[in-house]
Amino acid sequence: MTQMLPEPANVDAPAPADERNTVGVSQGRLVLRRFLANKVAVVSGILFLLLAAVSVSAIGLGPIPGWWKYDFTTLNPQNNSGAPTLSVFPFVWGDHPFGQDRIGIDYFAMTMRGIQNSILVMLVISVVGTTVGTVIGALAGYYRGWVDAVLMRITDVFIVIPIIVIGAVVGRATGGLGVVPLAFFLAMISWTTIARLVRAEFLSLREREFVEAARVAGASDARIIFKHILPNAIGVVIVAATLLAASAILLETALSYLQLGVRAPDVSLGLIISDNQSAFSTRPWLFWWPAVFIVLLAVLVNFVGDGLRDAFDPRQKRFSLRRTKEQAASSVTAPASTQARVHPETPSS
């Protein structure tokens, strides 16, 4: 008599390793865990903070003095024809590790001051630009209709004009007022990308059940926008703000290089390159030191932004060759073992 075959068993694939042990974990801890798992982003964040701390502590900030003995305005006697005294093998720091410019100002102090101004511009543009873009995008995405049409047409006007052109006009008018006014006015033209991203997120979230429940409960539009929808879109806002920070560094550098940003006697990395570009063939260190730190700042902020994007959006998985091979091997062996377990040998009647 033929033996009845049992019903095929449902064999569930094991959950990925990065999605286990997440039950009962808050969203903030989950995002932090994903970010800390990205070693490149963590190291970039640490290096950025270390660079900011060195630049502030070296020459001081405002009335607070720093530990470095020279400042970025005092003329000093030329030492070794202005060449850098820094040596790696053997390690020697010297009086002027980054060298001196044509008139004897210490180049290390000038570079640290330029890093300070770049970070300050980055912070102001990120905070102000993100705030303006978030408010405009939230209003456009929530109310839609004529509000959306008006706000998005204003956004389109800023988008179609190259930002370097608008920035040149703004820098020409405000560059002599100082770093903070320059950064503030640059932030007023740097919010367009964030506004579009937040608008798209609000258009999706406003149709969710929790928003309808808040309306039924009698919540005002402001409460729904800032208490219910915005916390669910905060990931998009933070990532966009981080990427805006890297663009802000390059924008300020470009304007200062064109003599339209930070003005003397203050110092900017772009202004240092602009003032010393004629000495590139004879004193290349006057060009390379600020150029290295411009690239370093932009790259570090971009890596941090990529890490935050991956942490807030778990759907964007990084490709792993080892993980792909393991999943392929498990998918090949699992059907064979299931077949042997579900269809055993049947004895002859």
Automatic annotation (TrEMBL):
One of its GO terms (biological process) is transmembrane transport. GO terms for cellular component: plasma membrane. Gene3D superfamilies: MetI-like. Its main location: membrane. Belongs to the binding-protein-dependent transport system permease family. This is Peptide/nickel transport system permease protein. It is a multi-pass membrane protein. Keywords: Cell membrane, Membrane, Transmembrane, Transmembrane helix, Transport. Residues 115-305 form the ABC transmembrane type-1 domain. It comes from the Bacteria. InterPro entries: BP-dependent_transpt_permease (IPR050366), MetI-like (IPR000515), MetI-like_sf (IPR035906), OppC_N (IPR025966). It is found in: Cell membrane. The chain crosses the membrane at residues 40-61, 119-143, 150-170, 176-198, 229-251, 286-308. Residues 327-349 have a biased composition (Polar residues). It comes from Microbacterium proteolyticum. Residues 1-20, 323-349 are annotated as: Disordered. The keyword Transmembrane helix applies.
